[in-house]
Design brief:
By secondary structure, the chain is mainly alpha-helical. The protein has helices spanning about 10-30, 60, 75-95, 100-120, 125-145, 150-175, 180-195, 200-220, 235-245. The two termini are about 20 Å apart. It binds zinc ion.
Length: about 250
């Protein structure tokens, strides 16, 4: 395969634009609205936005967070997603060894960022993201570690069935749903990317992170009960990302 003739920092240049698209995905996927590149109009005055209004981060900074037409506040959502996408790219560049791995890391990280953000906001992990992520994981495994592809396919199957099994047991014991089908599909995608051997660690890290978060939220004065809904997706996504980056046996080996 020809080497990518791009500077190592190229993902940093692309990241804010990807982040701008991810912001649109995060807002529109849960509502089944058509997804197009970029926002189309100011939320306050409805004026159509021009390319000049839509340069990621730069427009926001130059316009000091206000609409050029009506002066209405633009809000932090879009710049926050753009910054997060930039953070994912920087992290990927620091942690990965080859340009190819950096780009794969970016694609994985940006998808997980979108999934985690949507789940945190809407308790939803859209199939439109989890299923392609699963297929991509199998594809990367077949291309990079063909001798281990079986364990990645098994990881996908066991990730899905394992979490559906836990969800069914929880429903039988408690009489209510604790985990969604989306969580099972995200874990299946993780199994495809990392292989079956990584799944116990992945679930453990995600569960510990979720408990720590619930503890901190409780300390911060939020009322947390056994029945308080906490989305599991953001923790699964974070654990997935960390294991892929830092567990060489399954990720970057
Ligand atoms: Zn406006």
């Amino acid at each position: 395969m020809p080497a990518l003739i791009l500077p190592a920092w190229a993902p940093l240049l692309v990241a804010p634009f990807i982040g701008s698209f991810l912001g649109v995905l995060i807002q529109r996927l849960p509502e089944d609205r058509p997804v197009a590149f970029g926002r189309s109009a100011c939320a306050a005055c409805g004026t159509r936005l021009t390319p000049r209004d839509l340069v990621p981060l730069v427009s926001f900074a130059l316009q000091r967070g206000r609409c050029r037409h009506c002066g209405g506040a633009i809000g932090w959502f879009h710049p926050a997603v753009e910054l997060a996408a930039l953070g994912v790219a920087a992290w990927s560049i620091i942690a990965c060894q080859t340009p190819q791995q950096v780009w794969i890391g970016c694609a994985l990280g940006w998808t997980l960022l979108t999934l985690g953000w949507i789940d945190a906001a809407c308790f939803l992990l859209p199939d439109m993201l989890t299923l392609p992520l699963l297929l991509a994981g199998l594809g990367v495994a077949i291309a990079s570690v063909p001798e281990d592809a079986f364990w990645h396919a098994l990881g996908a199957a066991c990730g899905y069935l394992g979490l559906r099994g836990i969800a069914a047991a929880y429903r039988a014991l408690r009489g209510r749903d604790g985990l969604g089908a989306g969580d099972a599909k995200l874990l299946a995608a993780a199994g495809a990317w990392l292989g079956i051997g990584a799944l116990p660690s992945l679930v453990l890290v995600a569960a510990v992170a979720g408990l720590v978060w619930a503890g901190l939220a409780g300390l911060a004065g939020r009322s947390m009960h056994a029945t308080t809904d906490v989305p599991f997706g953001p923790f699964l996504a974070a654990s997935f990302w960390l294991l892929w980056l830092y567990w060489p046996a399954w990720g970057l080996a």
